[in-house]
Write a structure and sequence with these properties.
The complex is a heterodimer of chains A (427) and B (333). Chain A has 427 residues and is an alpha/beta fold. Chain A is 54% helix and 12% strand. The longest helix of chain A has 31 residues. Chain A is globular, with a radius of gyration of 27 Å. Chain B has 333 residues and is α/β, with parallel strands linked by helices. In chain B, helix 3 packs antiparallel against helix 4, helix 6 packs across helix 8 and helix 7 packs antiparallel against helix 8. Classes of the chains: A alpha/beta (427), B alpha/beta (333). Chains A and B meet through helix 7, helix 10, helix 12, helix 13 and helix 15 of A and helix 3, helix 4, helix 5, helix 8 and helix 9 of B.
Chain lengths: 427, 333
């Protein structure tokens, strides 16, 4: 790509990976970016993982398996009337069975395949090797790219303890398979009987002995059987892993790092960023998602210091002059008679006698939250700037994203910030 | 509905769980602090891959590490690293010698061990069991309450899937025997409680339902309430309507303008409404009452004052659809 920006990614990349810690809205951003790319006339696929119910509804994925389905952009027909070529597919990724599929692809025959899939170590190892499911997902991306059906594939990544488990997994598995002890275990002369272990000398014997005491009798036999079963796959696996790695770290791929503006999330995003850097991942931009809206003319951090107790009291007295008398008010909704899936709940009138103090307390608390969020954005923007990257912000929408309009709004919001975050958080 | 639930701090072992991003670590810290303030001797155990508890208690935090330390009088915190716990276990329980330590540190040994199903969870839970059993010189339990911040992966419940581990992986030997003791602790309704933490949002609520179903199914652990974290007070709507009566040209000294406040409150009230809907939804889906843990604007650090508001977690669980419609009234009750 010519430049490292979100816009360049949308126009030129073949793969956009939305990465970030759990709960930050990766799926939403991935869908919003995919819509923008399709508006640019690119044939686009968004690959989502475990979308929220309403987002799945928005994308028409509610009843969908793991096959590309066309997203009905005419649902927002007004905006799309001028983009007749917009072409967007969505597909849900089920990470679990894909590792099985990988084994299926790599094995020569049914018998060999079953032997691996039935092994209880396989079941555990394929999930315990943190990130192997994520890796399997990337395998799928690789296949879709190779198919040339799409100009761009936008990928949502699964929540992971460690950011780049999907990049690390193939390496770890490869290192494991190549280690001396594993080779020792699968060498035919020794594998069948533990008597053969005498050949290894005392340290190894102790080690295997300890393993069995911890993991239980029969563990080594199972492990040996498993390792022998997959030994033949090793070279095919390595070749594929290398290709996937080349795709993800190559010219045609861009990563978008997504964070939430809470301080806890910022800390893990910074760790994530360092990790991405270690892998030399082609990062395009940082996106801080769901920033609470706050009037641009007021600095929320300064508001608190400006509002001394005396000044606040004078304001409250001023408000009290015009304050409405105690009245019937609506707070929330009455959900008691409402089906959970039907959220067209009826409004009920509830009494609340708020006074100006309640109002000011509410505003000041909200200001403090917003100040904290903007501080997080500053921290992330500074780190991004050092890496010559832009930090975009997405303002929280007033409702859930249950229709394509919401995604369209987020996407155009992202693209309308050519200079990153400065517009948002200027004091 | 059911009678008042037992106070959280009257259990022996509370396992706090929830997906990443729900704030379960903060809730675990708040519960431990609340119990300490109530005079309990508390152990707070972190189990994730990386540590995050120490910065909540200490200005310049050092890693808690394995033995851990008192972060407040009466509150001992530690990070259970499975490898360290395994070394401990091998030494104390299996009775292996010094050579064991060296073997345990072998990278390949650790890699091979990764292939052994469930050892990590079992050893971690085993350590918790061991800490639960600990007594002081007089024979009294060393801790009144153990609060565990469960791992965030796989709903945090794989962690508790001890029966599977026992049956499939460890068929004989001392570990199998120890596993059955640990299992008994997990299933014990008297001593142990699983405390799910959720956010009042669509996806976390969906995930909490799955978690509670599993807890009641094959995991078989007590769960009787849900913590709804970062819950708004729900006053923005009423405040917005009161503000609507104030003329727009009223000059204020320090607050934002009337119009600015109105736009803030409008947004906040719509988000509040969603939060109240989701709180009611999670309660219905799971058939459990909820505890509101209010949003805390100042954030969580050693000096932010979060420790002064931990009492919210100990307030009675409520059924959000049972007529509690006035959050302000609830607050004053």
């Amino acid at each position: 790509m010519n430049s490292t920006t979100l816009e360049a990614g949308l126009r030129e990349a073949r793969v956009l990976v939305c990465a970030g810690t759990g709960g930050v809205g990766k799926t939403t951003i991935a869908a919003a970016l995919a819509i923008q790319a399709s508006l640019l006339g690119r044939r686009t696929l968004v690959l989502t993982i475990d979308p929220a119910r309403r987002l799945a509804d928005a994308l028409g994925l509610a009843s969908l398996g793991s096959r590309p389905t066309s997203v009905d952009l005419s649902a927002i027909s007004e905006q799309f009337a001028s983009f007749p070529s917009a072409n967007l597919d969505a597909m849900m990724l089920d990470a679990k069975p894909t590792f099985d599929r990988l084994i299926t692809r790599l094995t020569a025959n049914e018998e060999e395949r079953q032997r691996i899939l039935d092994n209880r170590i396989y079941e555990h190892l394929s999930s315990a090797l943190a990130g192997s499911a994520e890796y399997a997902a990337m395998e799928q991306v690789h296949e879709l790219v190779a198919s040339r059906r799409y100009d761009l594939i936008v990928v949502d990544t699964p929540p992971a303890d460690h950011a780049l488990d999907f990049l690390r997994a193939p390496r770890r598995l490869r290192e494991f398979l190549e280690s001396r002890f594993v080779h020792a275990l699968v060498r035919p002369a020794v594998s069948a009987s533990r008597i053969g272990m005498r050949l290894f000398g005392r340290p190894l014997q102790r080690m295997f002995g300890l393993l069995e005491r911890i993991a239980g009798k029969g563990f080594l036999d199972d492990l040996t059987e498993f390792l022998r079963a997959i030994e033949g796959l090793s070279s095919g696996f390595q070749e594929r892993a290398t290709r996937v790695e080349q795709l993800l770290l190559g010219e045609e791929t861009g990563f978008i790092l997504i964070s939430s503006p809470s301080s806890g999330s910022t800390a893990s995003t910074l760790d994530f960023l360092a990790d991405l850097d270690r892998f030399r991942v082609p990062l395009l931009a940082v996106v801080v998602n769901r920033l609470r809206p706050w009037p641009a003319e007021v600095n929320p951090a300064q508001l608190r210091s400006r509002c001394t107790a005396a000044a606040l009291e004078r304001d409250e007295q001023r408000l009290a002059q015009d304050w409405p008398a105690r009245r019937e008010d609506t707070i929330g909704r009455d959900d008691s008679n409402v089906n959970v899936d039907n959220e067209s709940a009826v409004e009920v009138e509830v009494t609340a006698d708020l006074d100006p103090k309640d109002l000011t307390a509410n505003i000041l608390e909200y200001a403090e939250i917003c100040a904290g969020e903007r501080e997080s954005v500053e921290v992330l923007a500074a780190v991004a700037a050092r890496a010559k990257l832009r930090c975009h912000t997405v303002v929280e929408l007033p409702g859930d994203i249950d229709r394509l309009e919401g995604l369209l709004e987020i996407g155009s919001n992202l693209r309308s910030q050519p200079n990153g975050h400065t517009r948002e958080v200027a004091p | 509905m059911a009678a008042a639930l037992r106070a959280l701090i009257d259990f022996r072992l509370v396992i706090v769980t929830g997906k990443g991003g729900t704030g379960k670590t903060v809730v675990a810290c708040e519960l431990a602090e609340a119990a300490r303030r109530a005079g309990k001797r508390v152990l707070l155990a972190e189990t994730g891959a990386s540590e995050s508890i120490a910065p909540l208690f200490e200005e310049s935090p050092r890693p808690l590490g394995y033995p851990g330390r008192e972060v407040r009088p009466g509150l001992h915190a530690l990070h259970i690293d499975p490898h360290a716990a395994l070394a401990d276990y091998a030494r104390l329980q299996i009775g292996l010698g010094a050579i064991t330590d060296r073997i345990l540190r072998f990278e390949t040994f650790q890699q091979l061990l990764e292939a052994a199903p469930g050892w990590r969870e079992l050893i971690t839970l085993g350590k918790i069991w061991h800490l639960e059993q600990k007594t002081d010189a007089k024979g009294h339990p060393l801790y009144d309450l153990l609060v565990v911040d469960a791992p965030a992966t796989g709903h945090g419940l794989t962690f508790l899937d001890v029966p599977r581990v026992v049956q499939q992986a460890v068929r004989t030997g001392p570990l199998s025997r120890h596993a059955s003791w640990v299992e008994a602790l997990v299933h014990d309704r008297e001593r142990t409680l699983l405390l799910p933490v959720t956010l009042p949002e669509d996806l976390p609520v969906q995930e909490t339902q799955e978690l509670v179903e599993r807890a009641r199914g094959d995991i078989d652990i007590g769960v009787d309430r849900i913590v709804v974290n970062r819950m708004p007070k729900g006053l923005a709507g009423a405040a917005s309507r009161s503000l609507a009566a104030i003329p727009n040209n009223v000059e204020l000294e320090c607050l934002p303008t009337i119009a600015e406040m109105q736009s803030i409150l409008e947004h906040a009230s719509r988000r509040d409404r969603l939060a109240f809907q989701q709180r009611s939804r999670v309660s219905k889906l799971c058939g459990l009452p909820v505890i509101d843990n209010p949003i805390f604007a100042a954030g969580f650090g050693a000096e932010t004052g979060w420790t002064d508001r931990v009492g919210a977690l100990l307030s009675p669980a409520i059924w959000p659809d049972a007529g509690l419609r006035d959050p302000k009234g609830a607050r004053q009750r």
